[in-house]
Design brief:
heterodimer, A: alpha/beta, two-stranded parallel ribbon, about 35% strand, globular, B: five-stranded mixed beta sheet, 19 strands
């Protein structure tokens, strides 16, 4: 009963938060990939079909720096992901990557390298175990990220 | 000229969802200018604040990345298709940051301006150097020029390990130290000199003999270890500790007129043991103190080690990983040998057997021999010898040094037979029936101890002069120069 008096999010705020929906299969792929490459970062593409991210496409981390702190998908990788999405009858809507032993929030480096209108999923991996997973979108003026809402089917 | 530009999905929101737009221009730069004048919102996503293309924006003309053509100036022909292809990058927050480098002050920008205008170094590279940490093992012949150049270049932290004090005979090559430093600790002298050159550099000094007990603790936290040691035991120790900790080893060594340099212990690169699995038998390779060294030689090799350290910190350029550089100062010739990591190497191989530091003096066979030599050989002091000479006692003085050493300083009346010739010439010594006591000397007493052992094998009893000609000069006849 108390909740209705607290200054929670209003209905109009809630509407402005974009929702990304993952299939359980895509979610599990991201979680497993993060655990697999720990303590290095993993990365991959998000392929959406009919408004749902049906596929998390694991990609090679081609960073020239420390893979524990960085990921990179080069132009060849981007084109491969784009092709893969079209073959699946969907579209490339974004990318995921892991933050080993760090929170699932975009770093300054993420912001510096961000593309507009892409969905960025970040999974925190703590000591090899997948933890929080979040989704982010770059603001049009590049000033920062806004957190989106991430959904997947729950329950049996 | 009209061209098509293909727009990637994330940017289509700025082109009215069009996946291709028509632009004009004779070059890529003009075509992109035409694009961003039609669709102004694209600009901030394609270009950084400094007006350059963001480095995660890739521009292709047909199938070629313009980075490998003429970038913005790449000429366009009719029908060429320009594609904008994203790279996607990111990473964890940098709380323990390899990439958060300290800012440069205005004074530093002025000091390092000749680095900053090299695109290969630039501001980012100079900040990496400022964050960089190099540990020099030894503040002697190799460590001197290396540390001086590292300090001048702005490497933020320079560690020095040494336990010696400055001797006049060091000054011919150890340019960290000056005449007025003779007798001072090498570390103090080095620190003063480096901070006079560059007060911004943090000089950390470790007054210790490097050992298996302290090496890992000393090395931890350094980006590069620069090996300026003068003996095999320490060289293997430095190598193994670097491999175990994953710290690159900028290696150099010198002897007489020749030097070597390489980079060991990088990921997948060879280590010193891949090159020399076993140390040479003790005594086979003389030290610089015994064999001499051209003073300018460590200047060349030490600066090569500093060069490699700087490139390792910058993460750029081609280092000596997998290559052994050989330098002959007398012939003035450089040569290069290819090195490969040995999959069977006991420390860096595929199945390493050596997982912690060992006793390196034992490994190099120095400990037992030194102990045996001094224990088994009868000795005489310079004072006792002086008394015998003054009393005109029947003695035979044998000097086993080299002729050029004999020219520098000698004890009057000594006969010269270099150690290497003694096995063939021991017959020149007086027979036992002559009743003369044989006293053997060299520079410091090490070679003459071997000579006494050798003579004993031929049935001749001799005594080793403790401390050699150096002790004679110190305690009996200061007019004899020390070398």
């Amino acid at each position: 009963m108390v909740e209705q008096f607290s200054p929670g999010p209003t209905a109009s705020d809630a509407v402005s938060v974009p929702v990304t929906t993952l299939t359980l299969d895509a979610l599990e792929t991201i979680r497993a990939h993060g655990a697999e490459t720990f303590p290095d970062e993993c990365c991959g593409a998000l392929i959406e079909v009919g408004g749902v991210v049906t596929q998390a496409f694991k990609m090679e981390n081609t960073t020239g720096g420390s893979a524990a702190r960085r990921f990179r998908i080069g132009p060849d990788g981007y084109r491969l992901a784009d092709k893969r999405a079209r073959e699946a009858g969907g579209s490339l809507v974004g990318f995921y990557h892991s933050h080993p032993n760090e929170p699932a929030r975009p770093s300054a480096y993420d912001l510096e390298h961000a593309w507009p209108n892409l969905t960025y999923v970040i999974i925190s991996v703590r000591n090899g175990t997948p933890a929080d997973i979040t989704v982010w979108h770059l603001r049009d003026d590049r000033s920062g990220y806004d957190e989106g809402e991430l959904k997947w089917p729950t329950g049996s | 000229m009209a061209h098509r530009v293909l727009i990637p999905t994330p940017l289509r929101a700025f082109t009215g969802q069009k996946d291709a737009v028509e632009v004009d221009g004779g070059t890529v730069g003009e075509a992109l200018a035409s694009l961003t004048s039609s669709y102004a919102d694209l600009r901030k996503h394609l270009y950084a604040d400094d007006g350059k293309l963001r480095h995660f924006v890739n521009i292709y003309v047909n199938d070629d990345d313009i980075r490998y053509l003429e970038r913005d100036a790449t000429a366009l022909k009719d029908g060429d298709v320009i594609s904008i292809v994203p790279s996607v990058a990111g990473g964890a927050p940098v709380s323990s940051p390899p990439e958060v480098y300290p800012e440069l002050s205005n004074d530093e920008i002025q000091r390092y301006s000749r680095h900053l205008i090299l695109p290969e170094v630039g501001i980012d590279g100079q900040r990496k150097l400022k964050a960089g940490k190099v540990l020099c093992i030894g503040a002697g012949g190799l460590g001197s020029p290396a540390a001086l150049y590292l300090a001048a270049a702005g490497v933020g932290t320079i560690g020095l390990v040494d336990f010696d004090s400055v001797d006049a005979s060091n000054l011919q090559r150890q340019i960290l130290h000056s005449t007025s430093d003779v007798g001072r600790s090498k570390l103090q002298s080095a620190k003063d000199r480096l901070n006079a050159l560059n007060p911004e550099v943090q000089v950390k000094t470790y007054e210790a003999r490097l050992s298996s007990a302290n090496a890992l603790d000393l090395f931890k936290g350094y980006d590069v270890v620069l090996d300026g040691t003068d003996n095999f035991a320490t060289r293997y120790l430095v190598n193994d500790a670097c491999v175990l900790l994953g710290i690159p080893n900028a290696y150099g060594s010198i002897f007489r007129f020749e030097g070597q340099a390489s980079v060991f212990a990088t990921k997948n690169g060879p280590c010193y043991r891949c090159l020399y699995p076993e140390p040479p038998p003790p005594g086979l390779v003389p030290s610089c103190a015994e064999g001499g060294v051209l003073g300018v030689l460590p200047g060349v090799i030490g600066t090569i080690q500093a060069t490699e350290s700087i490139k390792l910190i910058l993460g750029a350029g081609s280092t000596l990983v997998g290559r052994l550089l050989l330098y002959d100062a007398w012939a003035m010739r450089f040569r290069e040998l290819k090195l490969r990591r040995d999959p069977e190497c006991p420390v860096c191989g595929d199945h390493p057997t050596l997982k912690q530091l060992i006793d390196y003096e034992e490994f190099c066979g120095v400990k037992p021999v030194a102990a045996a030599a001094s224990a088994a050989v009868p000795e005489i002091t310079v004072e006792e010898l002086k008394a015998k000479i003054d009393a005109k006692a029947p003695i035979y003085l044998l000097d086993v040094r080299e002729p050029h050493e004999y020219q520098i300083a000698r004890i009057p009346g000594a006969t010269l037979i270099p150690l290497g010739q003694l096995g063939a010439r021991y017959g020149e010594l007086p027979p036992a029936s002559a009743g003369k006591e044989v006293i053997v000397m060299c520079r410091s007493g090490a070679r003459s101890a071997k000579a006494v052992t050798l003579l004993k094998e031929h049935g001749i009893e001799g005594k080793n002069l403790q401390g050699g000609v150096l002790a004679w000069s110190d305690r009996i006849d200061p007019t004899q120069p020390k070398y």
